[in-house]
Design brief:
It is a single chain. With 500 residues, the protein is of the alpha+beta class. It folds into two domains: 303 residues, no CATH class; 130 residues, Nucleic acid-binding proteins (OB fold (Dihydrolipoamide Acetyltransferase, E2P)). The chain has eleven helices and 20 strands. Helix 5 packs across helix 6 and helix 6 crosses helix 10. The termini are far apart. One of its GO terms (cellular component) is P-body. It comes from Umbelopsis ramanniana AG. This is RNB domain-containing protein.
């Protein structure tokens, strides 16, 4: 953990709250071998099965990692604020930190919700009651800060979802789940956002031509427009991604909520690093967080850009008049950081896709059919777009690939499928399945022999199906493992046939 939080109650309504990042710049000096390697790597890369560090393990997991009861070097942003999140004073400086405790998000969430600390948690130089009060104060102050930043109800918190895989001893995914941000994660994220904003303001004021900042353009609202084509006032250009996320709390339908969050995430443009003196000030805005100035001060273990920001902040605190590098050198670093971040994002997405394909392929080996419920969020003349909640997956299904006659009604925005009297679903034995690397890992009783007749026996009940936006439909899923990368194939299931 390279970020720590401190909370001190000064008076009844005044708090001192700090965000402390590991002082990586103390160990990673400019133009040294470790600096050159960190710069080349650009950032830490997280894949499903492993993490590729930016720094040597001694720094990443020890000297630049806060541990309970151990002294570590930090670079801190400390505010004095009231309970409404109004900041009275901001202090920046190098610190020596000794953490009182180390928690998981689940443990902090439990305390926030009113439980007491588990006796198994070892505390250093503090009491259990004092720590519980500090954690609840942290959550309350973070909510107030978020309200001031976004102008929303205090109960507004983000609930971003992501896929997590459980790998077996051989490295294959045998289970997956979708996890959401809890209030504890949102609290830490909000404090980190405010620390990044405060540092961005400080270094921009001192180095207006060299400050390394981060911006994000407005959301591409094409997907959201396709979801709500009759909403002319849907304008994401004036609505930050965080504000949109928080506003979703007014929607109580779980599946619709999940769909909108997914569309908002897919609609977001990638954030970019930039130099303050090389970009039009009108483009400084970070629409993802809804702030006019932003940078990356937190997580310097994970981002080389944050190490540069630490160096700029230190120079600003020392009142150095000139930044040590010229604009051309700054631009090379910024461009490289953006390229490496884009590559890291693509690698993480491809890693998740590969493991999802492996999981789905293994499920198809175990069961004759893999069916899931999907929500239709866009209906077009030649296709429908569906969101599969179980796998946080968007897929387009072309009508010509469905074994049914189809007609599109532009006035109602619906598609009518007229199914034939024969079901075209096939058993696992009818498709060539890739068994390499997974066959030996599955019990033989779970595998379907390709020589067996696995066709379903079906009876026709009806043959007309109408599909409209927000309709739930049943889809079948399979994976073509013969191509690279593997392709997930989704088909509409004829729901008017049943097995007998």
């Amino acid at each position: 953990m390279d970020v720590a939080v401190s909370v001190t109650r000064i008076s009844k309504d005044i708090f001192e709250i700090g965000v402390h990042a590991a002082d990586v710049s103390y160990f990673v000096r400019p133009k040294t071998a470790v600096d050159k390697e960190a710069r080349d790597r650009g950032l830490l890369v997280r894949l499903v099965d492993k993490t590729i560090s930016m720094l040597p393990e001694t720094l990443h997991k020890n000297l630049c990692s806060f541990r309970a009861g151990r002294k570590r070097l930090g670079f801190s942003v400390i505010w004095t604020m009231n309970s409404d999140g109004h900041i009275h004073e901001t202090w920046f400086g190098k610190t020596v930190l000794k953490s009182c405790a180390q928690f998981s998000f689940a443990q902090v969430q439990s305390v926030i919700q009113g439980s007491t600390l588990s006796e198994s948690i070892k505390l250093h130089d503090c009491t259990a009651s004092g720590m519980e009060e500090a954690l609840r104060s942290m959550s309350s102050l973070a909510i107030s800060l978020r309200q001031r930043r976004l102008g929303l109800n205090k109960s507004a918190t983000g609930q971003k979802t992501r896929l997590t895989f459980e790998l077996n001893a051989n490295g294959f995914p045998e289970a997956l789940s979708t996890t959401s941000h809890c209030e504890a994660q949102d609290a830490l994220q909000e404090l980190c956002i405010m620390a990044n904003v405060s540092v961005a303001q400080k270094i921009t004021k001192h180095f207006p031509e060299h400050a390394l900042l981060r911006r994000q353009d407005p959301i591409i609202d094409t997907l959201l427009k396709s979801f709500a084509p009759d909403e002319p006032n849907l304008d994401m250009h004036s609505f930050s991604k965080d504000a949109f996320e928080a506003a979703l709390l007014g929607i109580h339908d779980v599946e619709e909520l999940g769909l909108l969050r997914f569309l908002a995430a897919k609609s977001a443009r990638p954030a970019l690093y930039f130099g303050a003196g090389t970009t039009d000030i009108n483009k400084y805005f970070h629409h993802g967080h809804g702030v006019s100035l932003y940078t990356h001060f937190t997580s310097p273990v994970c981002r080389y850009a944050a190490i540069v920001v630490h160096r700029q902040l230190e120079a600003a605190l020392k009142q150095e008049r000139e930044w040590h590098s010229d604009k051309e050198e700054d631009e090379k670093i910024i461009m490289h950081c953006n390229v490496r971040e884009n590559a890291s994002r693509n690698a993480a997405e491809q890693s998740s896709h590969l493991y999802l394909c492996s999981y789905l392929n293994r499920q198809n080996l175990i069961a004759s059919h893999l069916h899931q419920t999907a929500t239709v969020f866009c209906v077009q003349e030649d296709s429908i777009d569906v969101y599969i909640h179980a796998y946080d997956l968007r897929q387009r299904i072309f009508l010509d690939d469905i074994y049914a006659e189809h007609t599109y009604d532009p006035t109602t925005g619906t598609i009518t499928l007229t199914w034939s009297m024969e079901d075209h679903r096939f058993g696992a034995g009818d498709d060539e399945l890739v068994l390499e690397d997974v066959e030996a890992d599955l019990p033989k009783s779970h595998l379907h022999s390709s020589t067996e007749n696995t066709h379903d026996v079906i009876v026709a009940l009806d043959n007309v199906q109408t599909i409209s936006r927000l309709a739930d439909i049943e889809v079948s899923m399979s994976v073509d493992m013969n191509v690279s990368p593997p392709v997930i194939v989704v088909d509409v299931v004829n729901s008017f046939f049943k097995q007998v």
